[in-house]
Amino acid sequence: VQLQESGPGLVKPSETLSLTCNVSGGSINGYYWSWIRQPAGEGLEWIGRTYSSGSTNYNPSLKGRVTMSVDTSKNQFSLKLDSVTAADTAIYYCARDHAGDRSFEIWGQGTLVTVSS
Amino acid sequence: DIQMTQSPSSLSASVGDRVTITCRASQSISSFLNWYQKKPGKAPNLLISSVSGLVSGVPSRFSGSGSGTDFILTISSLQPEDFATYYCQQSYTTPRTFGPGTRVDFK
After folding, report:
1. Residue B82 DSSP label
2. Min distance B31 CA to chain A CA atoms (Å)
3. Is A86 helix (H, G, I), strand (E, B) or coil?
4. B45 contacts B101 by C-beta, under 8 angstroms
5. Alpha-carbon distance A35 to A30, whole Å?
6. Which residue in the set B36, B97, B101 is minimally distant from A46, CB to CB?
7. Does residue B43 sit at the A interface (CB-CB below 8 Å)?
8. Could you report the per-residue pLDDT of A61-100, keeping only the tens digit for each?
9. Looking at chain B, which residue has its C-alpha nearest residue A92?
10. Nearest by CB to A46, which of B45, B55, B95?
11. Which residues lie across from A5 on neighbouring strands?
12. Do A103 and B101 touch (CB under 8 A)?
């Protein structure tokens, strides 16, 4: 299984960041799929996760700005982050949650999103 | 949220050294503790899950131990490719949280 993030690398302040993660080599069904980010020089932050059925859990730290969705017909899932600021500039990773121990067992390569006017 | 701490924040070591990194959770997380290795420009790589479960393909010089709130990652004999940043992460509850990382660099 391989994951690949895609989306704009530059987003203006106050606009919406939108990313998609394409899952290849396996089915999206039956797993939780997470988004994780890392600002330059900082640690890793879990943004949230979506199950293949569409249920979601988000990190409260993002104060309701996050929406995740799944498109099983395309074998992909998506992230939207509203009202972005410079603090949202980071490398964004998608990852698959292990069904048992809930570790992040498979990761995409990551995509840099810069918030700037 | 469950807070994860790590010590040390960085360490300098030589090839062949035994390296120990400690991770502490702000409350019991049972055995839902995972370790990742991160190199610059690369995605994190899962090394150990559920405290001590070595991921397939990860060298046996990596090992994990602990329970409850206190956990340890050990590299028995540091190799050149092991110079990286190591993160612990709890998967006990949401939001999932990571430790701040321990950078291992060359002495």
Report:
1. G
2. 9
3. helix
4. no
5. 17
6. B97
7. yes
8. 998 899 999 999 999 999 999 999 999 999 999 999 998 8
9. B43
10. B95
11. A21
12. no
